Amino acid sequence: MTQKNTTTQTNPPLAPVKPVVVGAVIALLVALFFVVGADAPSPAWGKYWMVRPLIIIPLAGAAGGAFYAFMMYQSARGFNRVLAVLLGIGVYLVGLWLGVVLGLDGTMWD
Description:
By secondary structure, this protein is mainly α. It has a domain at 51-110. The protein has three helices and no strands. The protein has helices spanning 17-36, 51-76, 81-104.
């Protein structure tokens, strides 16, 4: 008689990467909304003014996505799931807002 290995993996190894990528893509779309929406940028902003928001805002979104992934990990370990989701989304939105302020500081956010 042989024994079958019925171990199942609950979290795939790339599970934390998905919320980070989703958070960065959402933040990149927000950054593109502001950068593309600038009809006539001020000459005082410089030639490459749009590089800063296109880097800073997605980084803030990725950090928010990482926090969300951490909260989902904590909910799997026994933390209240509803509270984890609400806290993860709240921290993501605040981080995204701060990333927009930091990314657009000196240009559109004056």
